[in-house]
Amino acid sequence: MSAPAGIPGGVASPPGGPRAAWVWGIGVAVYLVAVIFRTSLGVAGLDAAERFDVNASALATFSILQLLVYAGMQIPVGLLVDRFGSRRVLVLGALLFTAGQLGFALAPSYGTALVARILLGCGDALTFISVLRLGSYWFPPRRGPLIGQVAAFFGMAGNLVSTVVLSRLLDDLGWTATFAGSAVAGVVVLVLALLFLKDRPDGARPLPSHGPRGHPRPRVRVRRLIAGAWAEPGTRLGMWIHFTSQFPAMVFMLLWGMPFLVEAQGLTRESAGSLLTLVVLVSMVVGLVYGQIIARHHAARLPLALGTVAVTAVTWAAVLLHPGDRAPMWLLVTLCAVLGAGGPASLIGFDFARPANPPERQGTASGIVNLGGFTASMITLLAVGLLLDATGGAYRIAFASVFALEALGLTQILRLRGRATRLERERLVASRVEAVHVPA
To answer: For position 203, what pLDDT does the model report?
Structure first.
């Protein structure tokens, strides 16, 4: 009997345990540092505008280009992970994002800083899908939803480091020392990955796509992997869940949250930093809760995702439509708490793509899913920047762009949910019937 879809071939049920936690933990450490570097601009946006003397649109370009590279690389990264394994891809990612962070620290001009952020985005793009693939080899399939949420938990810990630690270091040490010093963390995880990271447990067969080269030809194989993953309704449903759930918090944390809270809501940088920290803390807690719920109640996936999207839209509307120039603190706290659920909800998309695809295209399918949220974030970052410049800093109008993308994503989720869940149910029944008829 072949391994069920979503389970790497050769190890029907990976053992987990301390060895798995150690190896997978190194991969997670690489991802954590990538998130620190990715989100470091979120607390340095005002400093960057002053350092490089740029307006809102130009400031948004930093994050837009970074996310453009990240989003554009997701499918190629999935193919690379399927072809070469997690270790090589994570090592390359650590090299690139460390170089990008160091370059950002030393950049003498706006153009040079843009190049550094692009390089950082390239390295960052290589991490999360690699960590998901690594977890599928080292832990049992039933742990998949929880493993994904735990990886995201540590990613949010990286966000917390940016929000709490880097923001203080910027005040105390300045731009160059803060960003150059943080690049040391990239060197540390690079060494750990080189020395200790391993793609799969002893005795597991190589990745299915590691077979003889040239049969089929590489280009044909790549097209088949992408087409096969995209043809699955579960992959597309996962992408739209990721698209709709992730971007409100990503846009807030990556760039526009601090300026919105300080310039539009009149908070001090310390108070705004505390609210950004709340987003991260809530995300860490909600991620673990969602992971446990989905691991035990598979049918809860879609209600959790749709509920999170609905509550996010209602809360944003309450903030933007509140009478007066500024929303009350309790409403801003509520907004940040609700935004914290967006990241964990977006990971539910992977839980739809995983059972819909066979082992040889797990990375490719994950890349398609991960493309969703970062594409939405990129579009919204640009829209907010352009609207701020066009309206003279009207944050209420600028953030209204959030609703347009949420409406688009919600429409696609509702369109795909029936077919995706029906196919998944049919495959589950078929695999159980097959298991019954396989001789012991």
So the answer is: 63
